[in-house]
């Protein structure tokens, strides 16, 4: 039946075009209705023959000189041909015949946007709003929101969408758009009030519940957001974006098992994405389920092989299981992409230290420190490695550089003290120990681990008793 209908429409159009060509050439007089010209113009427009469409509109106006519809059609074609001023003149002429057609204001808006005069486009639509109601007014508000977006008056974009939803609370397009703009403009609280009113009157509107949830999530009200997502999912259990956002909310609340369940639903409902597998891997990581974390990081890595962070995260899971060689293999893969990335070199140094390969560890830890000279943890680990390898002098130098880079962090007073003790410079070490203890007593326990037999020194015991008892 559909094929028969389409064939009949094609035959009718061929007859119409034949009559139009006869009229155009003057070979014979054919009478065409105003609606016939509209169909002919649309035919040429759909065939991307804009010149012929404009010509057909001209011939139509010769037959129906008072037709506002044909003027609008011709203006539309002139805009497509970038003859903006001609189009505007024609629209001003059409306004004399019919000022109550929404097409007039939309086409004028298109002209001013094409002329890069969005303020004039907005003014036309703002003035027109009072003339229309119902669907026409809503269409104008959508047009106006696009104009405001064009010249970056984003607050007014939100205002337009809010007005639409106040008139048509279940308008799907407005509900889809306002979710973004509420977040972008920071008007989450206003969005909450709007959507609570919507769901009060339309309790089975899943987009209303979803938008309410996202607004709660923007304000970090994660429990309320989860409740609202669950209502949305009770209405539409195939809404994968709700499961995705709910998974994020659970992660923020450190409810990792719940997050895994929500994110797994995303994988069931939509195309697999690396970010979802990575997020699930992160949850298992937090639960210290290293095998499952690794499994999901690998899934993410297969989908995004350019992301070296995923190889690093896999390496961390092996490190946690003390599988040094497996961790090193993954770090080599990561460092093919980002050779000097601090975290990668730091973890490689840790693996080499665990294997007792201290000289290799020093090389990697040095790269980490060069990349992040102000990072306390990385430099501290390098100094500890240097001390273990017997390079006390280099450890002292790194400690002094650390003090300069961090503006006197007490960690490096303790490592300077350790280096001096191991170099046999007890007097300098004791001076630094007193400075360190007076600044921060927390580093003393690590100093004891770094220097064998430290607590057998009377002077050290005296200082420890003085400052630690005081604490």
Radius of gyration, whole Å: 36 Å
Largest sheet descriptor: none
pLDDT < 50 stretches = none
Average pLDDT number: 91
Number of helices: 27
Strand content: under 5%
Terminal Cα span: 92 Å
Q: What class, by secondary structure content?
A: mainly alpha
Which overall shape is indicated by the principal axes computed on the Cα atoms? elongated
Number of strands: 0
Please give the structural blueprint.
Layout: H1 2-25, H2 34-46, H3 50-63, H4 68-80, H5 84-97, H6 102-114, H7 118-129, H8 134-150, H9 154-167, H10 172-184, H11 188-201, H12 206-218, H13 222-235, H14 240-252, H15 256-269, H16 274-286, H17 290-303, H18 308-320, H19 324-337, H20 342-354, H21 358-371, H22 376-388, H23 392-405, H24 410-422, H25 426-439, H26 444-450, H27 458-470
Description:
This protein is an all-alpha fold and about 475 residues long. Helix content is about 80%, strand content about 0%. The protein contains 27 helices and no strands. The chain has helices at about 1-25, 35-45, 50-65, 70-80, 85-95, 100-115, 120-130, 135-150, 155-165, 170-185, 190-200, 205-220, 220-235, 240-250, 255-270, 275-285, 290-305, 310-320, 325-335, 340-355, 360-370, 375-390, 390-405, 410-420, 425-440, 445-450, 460-470. Helix 24 runs antiparallel to helix 25 (about 425-440).
